[in-house]
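Q: Could you predict the 3D structure of Cytochrome c oxidase assembly protein COX14 homolog?
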Amino acid sequence: MSRAFPVFSWLEGKKRATMVSGKRMADMGYRLFSGSMMLLTVYGGYLCVMRGHRYMQRQKQLQLEAENQTNSD
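A: Sure. Here are the predicted structure tokens for Cytochrome c oxidase assembly protein COX14 homolog:
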């Protein structure tokens, strides 16, 4: 026996109540959770790439400064 939960959707300004089964509610929750985890993974990857990019730029800048310092001496 499945229990149903009322879900309200607003279509064309009218409030209609539809019944959603527990399995469907669990499916929606799983998809929402999975989607949020995918977004967090993509965002984490972006942050790692940007940090690596900044690190490489800083290393190049330090190397240029070291070369300029030795050339000016």
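Q: Anything worth pointing out?
A: The longest strand covers residues 4-11.
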